[in-house]
Amino acid sequence: MTHRKPASATKLNRRDFLRSTAVFATGVAVVPRHVIAASGQTPPSEKIRIAAIGIAGMGAGDIDSLAPGNEMVALCDVDWAHGAKTFAKFPSAKQYKDFRRMFDEMHQGIDAVLVATPDHTHAVAAMAAIKLGKHVYCEKPLAHSLHEVRELTRAAKKYNVVTQLGNQGHSFESCRFLCEWIQDGAIGNVHTIHAGCASVNSALDRLPQLVEKHDVPATLDWDLWLGPAQYRPYHPSYLPGKWRAWTPFGSGTVGDWMCHVVDPVFWALDLGAPSSLVAEVKDYDPKKQADSYPRGDVITYKFPAKGKRGPITLKWFSGTDRIPRPPELEADEKNIETGAVVMGDKGTMVYGSHGASQVRLIPQAKNDAYKRPAKTFPRVKGHHWDWLQAIRNGTKSGSDFSCGGPLTEVPVLGAIALKMPGVTLEWDSVNLSFKNNAEANKYINPPYRKGWTL
Fold first, then answer.
1. Structure confidence by residue, pLDDT tens digits, 188-223
2. Distance between CA 118 and CA 244 in Å, rounded?
3. Which of 3, 215, 325, 380 lies 20 to 30 angstroms, CA to CA, from 153?
């Protein structure tokens, strides 16, 4: 009778496999890791095989940060002209237009996946990778609908993969400073936050152009670009990069920027889910102009008391609606255009767009007099580095989907509120539903186009 070893005894991870096969192949011991590292090279056993979906724009920048010391084994983009520069940088990487085909052919040779497509295809690409057990770095916002965000968050936990949301500022030291200062009581009990971004992601001026007919560029697969979105004819006003202003594809300024700007206070104050929200807009009719986001908006969120902190009001300002000037700001200083003003019962602090950059107390005299607390939050070398190290070490990254998912739900909620301005929506996060508005509930899980599933 033969005895089969238990799975735990026979399981060999890729790192161990590479090390053992290197010994057999050469007949000598593997060169110690510290010796290779001293030469400036990455040990073969530490190289991560990465596939990228969406390789131009932000994707190209992500790839530049992920590639050194690793292997870019596959590159996927629906527009090969748009991705030409990245294809040329990595000639050994296999090229694809359809990520589904890429996974069918190469999933055994991929360890980790970058998703940097337009918002409306984040979820289908990321979920396909997660279900294959691949680690995922996904650009923000995590997904285009609340249902997608929640399902990705659950799947990442179920399949035990290392994930990271692309809110790079989360790894900045300034983000840690803000958390430490708030916990130190630098401004007392926080009660109000004014946050926003001056960028205008609106297509109102382009709506009349949609009656035009245009040929699809030869290098673009329009059907794949649409993905799960409902079919519509190609128009150059949608891409590249312009999709953020269109509701079927992007998430407006609130979706594009809140995961950067609000992340520091979301972390520091453990904001969680809001109990209600309401949007205010000017010169915008969501029924007649539903395809576009407004040029400016103000969204007011109410976060209930939690733990030792009291309730918090967060007001988000987009585009032409700007953050009110805090009275404590010096007279000769410009107002905050993209960033946040955090108000407590003992003072006010301000910070910039990414990761609480340039965080400080105002007025300046109070900032100068403040004795900084000890550094209690862990520091990391960079956002992409943090994800890669978590993969190598089998740990969690700083902004994995368990953090990035709940953060993303806040701007996605805001995008829904913009569809019905002036209406206060009461949110039930546990049951993923609006308690007082059946119309709003229709936007939680919009239907996919036939042939696409999550």
1. 999 999 999 999 999 999 999 999 999 999 999 999
2. 8
3. 380
